[in-house]
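Supplementary notes for students who missed Thursday's class. We covered one full example, reproduced here. Read the sequence, then the structure, then the short commentary at the end.
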Amino acid sequence: MNDWLKHLTAAELAYWHAKQKSETDWWDANTKPEDRQQLLRGEISGKVAYERLLRLPSSTREAILKDLAAKADAARIRLAALGYGAANHTSPIEKVSETSFSNCTTLEDYQNIVSAFSDLVADHRPLIGDCSVLPQPKKTILYAICWVRDHLQTLQEETEDETLAEKCSGLINTLTFLFTHLTADWHDILPEDKDAVEKLGECDSFPDWALPLKAKYINDENASKEAYGVAFQVLKDKVDQESGRGR
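Structure (token representation):
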């Protein structure tokens, strides 16, 4: 069951063994062994990037964030997020506390976006997903997942309620899984590949005839870059938001 651990570096293995048992139990129950290495590396990369940014001098940090802002399409992402959300939709991503994020007017919109994607993949997780069937653009959903996850991580760090902290941990794991699945497995499919990708949706693993599709669309390096960019953009927007409140 834990053969995947053999492929981890010493640092990654140490990070894994430092997890609480409730977290590793969640991974065992909710993730596939073949996904865990990438899922863990995505979690570590986000944590390391966040911590490195916070340790930088404020002038350097601001320069990096400005550079990221110039390259990102965050404005379109935010507008799409704010324009979406069914008032009566019940999110399967449980609202841990009704008052915890009362000062964030966009959280419910982000939860609705996450919920719609979670509903889509609840019964079946495709080996290669076609972005044309997503309820929102891929970047919009990634941004929403990352935003909600960041809020939960903040709540987990600040609360003294162990039950609440453990509940947050489970939800964070769920969001990390959704984030990793979306970055790695969902892509803009070329017209000539759509029929084959739809047929592949009936499979639990890649048959020989689909290996060229896997080589064409599944790219761990590109997925990591996409995840890194979204995580930094959310961090930048939150920093800007807090700076605006402080004025």
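Commentary. The chain has one domain: 34-246. Residues 10 and 16 are 10 Å apart (CA to CA). If anything here is unclear, bring it to office hours.
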